[in-house]
Amino acid sequence: MAYASKSGRARTDPSNPRAFGVCMRCGLWWNRHRIADQYDWRGTSLANLYVLVCPPCMDRPQPQLKAIVLPADPVPVYRALVEPFFDDEV
Description:
The protein has one helix and four strands. The protein is mainly beta. It has one domain (20-89). The strands form two sheets. A two-stranded antiparallel ribbon has the order 1-2. The longest helix is centred in the last third of the chain and has 5 residues, at 85-89. The relative contact order is 0.16.
């Protein structure tokens, strides 16, 4: 009869005990220090999604969700004058 560990991917060390945690995507148990928060783009900055995931389930932030930052308009010409086309035709 085979033995399946109920602690998943978590490692138990009696001399250095660490907490267990569950990945919110795959449901496997990992050591809590290996589970991290998932971040994604929200506007111009990265935002925490409050999803704890294991290293294989960790996604890179999608650059498609990043806001497009347009450059500022150019400085207008001070006292711009209109070309006198009517005077040129007479």
